From TrEMBL:
This is Olfactory receptor. Residues 39-288 form the G-protein coupled receptors family 1 profile domain. It comes from the Eukaryota. It is a multi-pass membrane protein. Odorant receptor. The gene is LOC101713865.
Length: 314
């Protein structure tokens, strides 16, 4: 029997009920947020201003950094504010907006990572036709479709998750609104409305994963046929960062959305949500910068230009 008490707002559980620990968590997340924000803004700035970094791979990397900035900026500032003010409540419209933006930006990352895998596939498996296939119009179209599908992805989740009332407990055992936690307090009589939209959204995500795996199977096969060991290492070096970023993002997302929800979650149970929201935006710039000599040289050129510009006139 459905609980007659309808939920009108939510309480984000966070990591602690102790005000001092809440403040400490808020300051820690503020530090992580600034690191993610500054590092990704730096990548976007370099890839935008440096004329030597305008290849399709860097165009998609810039889109990925913009999505990282957007994704981390949805839940973290709200959590920092809640921790510092010791007020963990969030309205239903606020929760719906947060869920829409997070699922949209997460979907956008998945679609952009799929486009990046296709770019690497064409570069390695069809090198003679690379410039013709991955021209400016094709790159803009792929990026535009990725952002548009991301909005559709978020809308499908919203349509399913907020298609009916919530009953019983108003506590969300995370520091942001996510689908598994909301479905636990969703009125069971309306579940038939939820499944189609969530099923379509999951099919979109699964299709992207299949495309990425398919691309890398062909990439690996093509690289292993290259006779030169040096050429093999160079080909792998352009694919390894993307594959590593994709693996971290997918694993962290699966830990949040596919693991069983505990009735009384501990702090350890809430850590996957941190990995999902904070870890990829922090690690992605590091992975691409350390593994890509062109980006490192671009950073040096940018810093040199800033140093020359700031040098006082004598």
């Amino acid at each position: 029997m459905v609980n007659a008490t309808l939920v009108t707002s939510f309480l984000l559980l966070g990591f602690s009920e102790d005000p001092e620990l809440q403040t400490l968590c808020g300051l820690l997340f503020l530090l992580m947020y600034l690191v993610a924000l500054i590092s990704n803004l730096l990548i976007v700035t370099v890839l935008t201003l440096d004329p030597q970094l305008q290849a399709p791979m860097y165009f998609f990397l810039k889109n990925l950094s913009l999505l990282d900035i957007s994704l981390v900026s949805v839940p973290i500032p709200k959590f920092i504010l809640n921790s510092l003010t010791h007020n963990n409540s969030i309205s239903i419209p606020g929760c719906a907006l947060q869920l829409f933006l997070m699922t949209s930006f997460s979907g956008g990352e998945t679609f952009i990572l799929t486009a990046m895998s296709y770019d690497r596939y064409v570069a390695i498996c069809c090198p003679l036709h690379y410039e013709a296939i991955m021209n400016d119009d094709a790159c803009m179209l792929m990026a535009g479709v990725s952002w548009a599908l991301a909005g559709l992805f978020g809308a499908l989740y919203i349509a399913g998750t907020f298609s009916g009332p919530f009953c019983g407990s108003s506590v969300i055992p995370e520091f942001f609104c996510n689908v598994p936690s909301l479905l636990k307090i969703f009125c069971s009589v309306t579940f038939l409305v939820v499944y189609p939209s969530l099923g379509i959204a999951m099919c979109l995500g699964l299709s992207c994963c299949v495309c990425i795996v398919f691309s890398y199977v062909h990439i690996l096969s093509a690289v292993l046929r290259i006779p030169s060991r040096k050429s093999q290492c160079k080909a792998f070096s352009t694919c390894l960062p993307h594959l590593l970023v994709f693996t971290i993002f997918i694993l962290s997302a699966c830990m949040v959305y596919l693991r069983p929800q505990a009735d009384a979650p501990t702090v350890i149970d809430r850590l996957p949500a941190v990995f999902y929201t904070v870890l990829p935006p922090i690690l992605n710039p590091v992975i691409y910068t350390l593994r890509n000599g062109d980006i490192k040289w671009g950073l040096r050129r940018l810093l040199s230009a800033l140093h020359v510009h700031q040098r006082p006139f004598i």
